[in-house]
């Protein structure tokens, strides 16, 4: 399961960087991890993006990219 999640996260990073370079660059500078105890969806503190694995796996690829852009916008907005 951990490898599946890591593969999904790696793909999100690559696709975001290719299709949304402004946000992909920001996303690539953050530490990414899974933390099912911290959040039911996703969160950031400007240094990391943490995801709930069940939530992340329930999304299709376009929604995963949208979520990534959303989280990076929190970082850029600070």
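-> sequence recovered:
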């Amino acid at each position: 399961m951990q490898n599946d999640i890591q593969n999904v996260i790696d793909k999100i990073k690559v696709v975001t960087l290719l299709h949304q370079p402004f946000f992909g660059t920001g996303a690539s500078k953050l530490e990414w991890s899974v933390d099912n105890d911290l959040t039911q969806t996703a969160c950031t503190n400007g240094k990391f993006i943490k995801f709930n694995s069940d939530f992340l796996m329930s999304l299709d690829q376009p929604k995963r990219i949208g979520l990534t852009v959303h989280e990076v916008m929190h970082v850029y907005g600070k």
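The chain is about 60% helix and 15% strand.
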